[in-house]
Write a structure and sequence with these properties.
The protein is an alpha/beta fold and 490 residues long. It has 2 domains: 143 residues, no CATH class; 277 residues, Peptidase S8/S53 domain (Rossmann fold, 3-Layer(aba) Sandwich), CATH 3.40.50.200. Helix content is 18%, strand content 20%. A 7-stranded parallel β-sheet has the order 9-10-8-12-13-14-15, sandwiched between helices. Strands 1, 3, 5, 6, 7 and 11 form a 6-stranded mixed β-sheet that branches. The chain has a two-stranded parallel ribbon with strand order 2-4. Helix 7 links the parallel strand 12 and strand 13.
């Protein structure tokens, strides 16, 4: 995805590329972020507020978000060993040692992003309106509510194309409105490369999946040793917010506990190809003498399709996917997409999921620069950069110790692919490279650790039980994940 690039690893703003090509979003000329002070969209609604807007509605006005470190807390967690809502730090953050906390999102005017990211594309004739209470819109010929997300106080509204700015100004004058912003298209980003065999097998629990020897990433992070300590639990669910998951893949089908489609596609299946690859890394069926092994071993998958069949999405769709996953039992949310523009709607969805106790993981992006990307940079999210087989930062990986938390293998990663032709050319199994893949390893690790009853929050373990590879403290705050060390710490 480009601008909010989907890392298959990214989200929608002109962002960083991820697996394969690096599409981008187009940012509009005069798009500014406007915010109104007031209650957060998740607070107690007030009744009796009505918006009487007759102007065509479709503009952009967004609010940034605000954002700590700390020692490992001692929380009494519920069964499963994951972060429970009461164990979360500010805004759902886990402890972060003595490193400085992630800063709050910078309120970057949308139009300013156009210079560096010329392809961020707003959705014509649509606005995202945050309400302070239970306000409702008066339906007119030029203003029509399309959907509402009561969990985060959002109304998705259709307006006459070309009248977005005027409608935004009118809406912001109403005391019932907290913010108004444009919806943006999100594009996937992929970096296809040739496969890479890795022969050195680790000891402990080595799975019998025939392609395991090709999965150098699992060997690098010490997965076999970790599996000797725990193989996770089917009670822990990883939500894959992506382009879908192949519905009858031999190494995935029985792992999928549910499907939800928020995209414009007419199927929950993965026509595009990215989501299936990510899902396999996170939790393919393991030790079944078929295909590959999944990091989360016994963890299961929730297919939340937020990308269209051509690899695009929109902030409003992604926000719905995040809220849905949090409300339907997902302990871990994998978001392999990213973009450099922060969105109030997206931030509110992330905060909502954090309050529900979800661990969120997102790819940093594939721009190869220090440009900050979202949702990875939000304090509630674990931002993941990519490394290669030599433990070097992958040249395409976005970086920056102020916002990228950890690194994980991302280059030449062998995993599952759709059982039909797709743009990546990975039918059944294949290799991709990008931070999307790296994020999937961390999501699998989170799920594996969540299966244990622990005192120290899972996020803290992921970030602190890492290897100090080159780039620690500069390219990413902590090191490259080490699943064996994290599991052995129980």
């Amino acid at each position: 995805m480009g601008s909010w690039r989907r890392l298959l690893g990214f989200l929608v703003v002109p962002a960083i590329g991820a697996c394969g090509h690096t599409p981008q979003l187009a940012v509009p000329d005069q798009l500014t972020t406007v915010a109104r002070s007031g209650r957060l969209p998740g607070s107690t609604p007030q009744t009796g507020q009505t918006l009487d807007v007759t102007l065509p509605l479709s503009a952009s006005a967004a609010a940034p978000a605000p954002g700590g470190p700390g020692a490992a807390p001692t929380a009494d967690l519920t069964s499963g060993g994951d972060l429970a809502p009461d164990d979360l730090g500010p805004d759902g953050l886990g402890p972060s040692e003595d490193a400085p906390p992630k800063s709050e999102p910078v309120d970057r005017p949308m139009f300013a992003a156009a210079e560096s990211f010329p392809t961020a594309q707003p959705v014509s004739g649509r606005l995202l309106v945050g309400l302070k209470g239970s306000a409702s819109f008066k339906v007119t010929a030029t203003l029509r509510p399309l959907a509402t997300m009561s969990d985060i106080g959002l109304s998705i509204v259709a307006v006459t194309a070309g009248q977005e700015a005027a409608a935004t100004a009118k809406l912001l004058a109403d005391p019932a409105v907290e913010y108004v912003e444009r919806d943006y298209r999100v594009r996937d980003t992929s970096l296809r490369q040739a496969g890479n065999a890795y022969s050195a097998l680790a000891k402990e629990r080595v799975p019998n999946d025939p392609a395991f020897s090709r999965q150098w990433g699992l060997l690098k992070i010490g997965a076999p040793k970790a599996w000797g300590v725990t193989t996770g639990s089917p009670a822990v669910i990883i939500a894959i917010l992506d382009s879908g998951i192949d519905q009858d893949h031999e190494d995935l089908a029985t792992k999928v506990v549910g499907n939800k489609n928020f995209s414009d596609s007419d199927t929950v299946d993965d026509i595009y190809g990215h989501g299936t690859h990510v899902a396999g890394i996170a939790a393919a069926i393991t030790n079944n003498r078929i295909g590959v092994a999944g990091t989360g071993y016994n963890s299961r998958l929730l297919n939340v399709k937020v990308m269209s069949d051509d690899g695009y999405s929109e902030v409003s769709i992604i926000a719905q996917g995040i809220v849905y996953a949090a409300n339907h039992g997902a302990r871990v949310l994998n978001m392999s997409f990213a973009g450099p523009i922060t969105s109030k709607t997206l931030r509110n969805a992330v905060k909502y999921a954090a309050r529900k106790g979800a661990i969120m993981v997102a790819s940093a992006g594939n721009d190869g620069t220090a440009t900050v990307n979202y949702p990875a940079a939000y304090p509630e999210v674990i931002a993941v950069g990519a490394t290669d087989g030599g433990d070097q930062k992958a040249p395409y990986s976005s970086f920056g110790a102020s916002w990228v938390d950890v690194a994980a293998p991302g280059s030449e990663i062998y995993s599952t692919g759709p059982d039909h032709p797709n743009v990546f050319g990975i039918e059944n199994y294949g290799t991709l490279s990008c931070t999307s893949m790296a994020a999937a390893f961390v999501s699998g690790e989170a799920a594996l650790l969540c299966a244990r009853r622990v005192i120290t929050p899972v996020r803290w373990r992921i970030e602190h039980y890492t290897d100090a590879v080159k780039g620690k403290g500069k390219s990413f705050r902590y090191g490259r994940i080490n699943l064996a060390r994290a599991a052995a710490s129980f």
